[in-house]
């Protein structure tokens, strides 16, 4: 139980720290000025200094994605859009730009076009609130439940006590649903690792070695699932047909 509480606290602290960093990195304003002057390379250099100094902020990643896209670097633009979306999954602008950039990639994975409406609704509800907002909602619900529980012991009459019991029961269900969604997001942040080809292309080899056989070649901007890291290589999977190893120097790992 203590580990779960610690994890929630550290998550909230990380979000608060990133917001503070956004206003303290001097590269933010310099990069914005360069971007507005269409000097995208300088904007990238300025904003990357903030990233290199440990800043993790959705707006920064989103702006870097835009700068790389305008500069003709499709792979890095998708990489940073994905980084931004990982921190702000329900942002329409990030989703739109990511889809637009991904539509320009050469490698495609066959997907079922039919979408289950029930699953689609659950997905939208799950991403309706950010993790930070969900943690705040959980805190509010917890204190409301505590207040109603105390009120139940103080009010007179069986009817009033039953109303309090019903309110506690309903809020407990909401608390569990929101808690499950938040917990899933935390788990995904820790375990669901994806990558993007940032080089012009990347060879997929049969083993984590420069001398191993080349199985496939992925083009710039292609996204894939990361199964693990072995030395200077990442073990990846793309759909049902592509599985092997790529050089870390040719890809970006979204985490």
Poorly predicted regions are 1-22, 110-114
CATH architecture of the largest domain: Alpha Horseshoe
The description of the largest β-sheet is: 5 strands, antiparallel
What percentage of residues falls in helices of 4 or more residues? 55-70%
Can you count the beta strands?
7
Strand/helix succession: HHHHHHHHHEEEEEEE
Tally of individual domains: 3
Number of helices: 9
- Mean pLDDT across the residues is 83
* Secondary-structure class: alpha+beta
What do you see in this structure?
The two termini are 25 Å apart. The chain has 255 residues and is an alpha+beta fold. A hairpin with a 3-residue loop joins strand 5 (233-238) and strand 6 (242-247). The strands form 2 sheets. Strands 6-5-4-1-7 form a 5-stranded antiparallel β-sheet, covered by helices on one side. Strands 2-3 form a two-stranded antiparallel ribbon. The protein has 3 domains: 2-102, Tetratricopeptide repeat domain (Serine Threonine Protein Phosphatase 5, Tetratricopeptide repeat, Alpha Horseshoe), CATH 1.25.40; 117-191; 194-254, SH3 type barrels (Roll). The radius of gyration is 23 Å and the shape is elongated. The chain has helices spanning 2-24, 27-36, 40-52, 58-70, 74-87, 92-102, 117-126, 131-154, 158-191, and strands at residues 194-197, 201-205, 214-219, 223-230, 233-238, 242-247, 251-254.
